[in-house]
Amino acid sequence: MNAFEVTGLNLWYGSHHALHDININIPKNKVTALIGPSGCGKSTFLKTLNRMQDLVKTVKIEGQVLFEGQDIYDPKADVNEIRKEVGMVFQKANPFPMSIYENVAYGPKIHGIRSKKELDQIVEESLRGAALWDETKDRLEKSALGLSGGQQQRLCIARALAVKPKVLLLDESTSALDPISTGQIEELVGELKKDYTVIMVTHNMQQAVRVSDYAAFFLLGDLIEFAPTDELFNNPQQPQTADYVNGLFG
Ligand SMILES: Nc1ncnc2c1ncn2[C@@H]1O[C@H](COP(=O)(O)OP(=O)(O)OP(=O)(O)O)[C@@H](O)[C@H]1O
């Protein structure tokens, strides 16, 4: 079963044609890594999956992106609902300057949940889901800005989980972290795929190998190859993929 079915996707920033005719089916409840050299369109593609590109004025998009069979670019599609179902965590942790509890409760409150009991439960579940509960349960009222970088990034994952998404998009979410925090998030991603589809941009090929089930290799706006991660790294079908995974460029 696929989470996303993308057909003939093209994207321009003004006159710059940044994604060329992308066709890919991204499987549900798996981890898919987007890899490729800097500037090849990984983040651009990731952001087409929850319409984050709508925020960039010069962007033009053609083609189709189906999420669970629904066309997310249909003029009648509800963008807020899409962004609730397809959550995103960025490269740099960006907790709100408020308590740990309020960071996680923020999204559910915006979506209309008022009951303290229900919010308490969502906060606990989300922090547990992000492997942060044990470290924070005694300091929920303390500022989120007092957490370490790795804890802040897991808090951002908890914040994304709190609105009960189906998909998590991670845009180089470990690139600013030390190896121990990176390892914790990689372990967490392995847990998350039981309940969520995870799509992650990573610069780090070892990370893609460690964490992902499928990998998509982008080069200069083209999707060159998409395959189970083992196959893409050990038996690439395209010469450009072979050169990249063998470290010839990038
Ligand atoms: N908001 C924007 N406006 C104009 N051009 C952009 C914008 N964002 C990205 N681009 C251009 O689109 C191309 C793809 O960028 P993108 O950030 O998707 O690449 P990437 O593969 O994620 O790179 P990196 O690994 O360095 O983050 C680049 O040429 C970039 O300069």
TrEMBL record:
Q: Name one Pfam family in it.
A: ABC_tran
One GO biological process from the UniProt record?
phosphate ion transmembrane transport
Quick check: keyword Nucleotide-binding in the entry?
yes
Keywords of this entry? ATP-binding, Hydrolase, Nucleotide-binding, Translocase, Transport
Task: Kindly list the GO CC terms recorded for this protein.
Answer: membrane
- What range does the record give for the signal peptide? none
Molecular function via GO: ATP binding; ATP hydrolysis activity; phosphate transmembrane transporter activity
Annotated PANTHER family: ABC TRANSPORTER I FAMILY MEMBER 17 (PTHR43423:SF1)
Specify the protein name: Phosphate ABC transporter ATP-binding protein
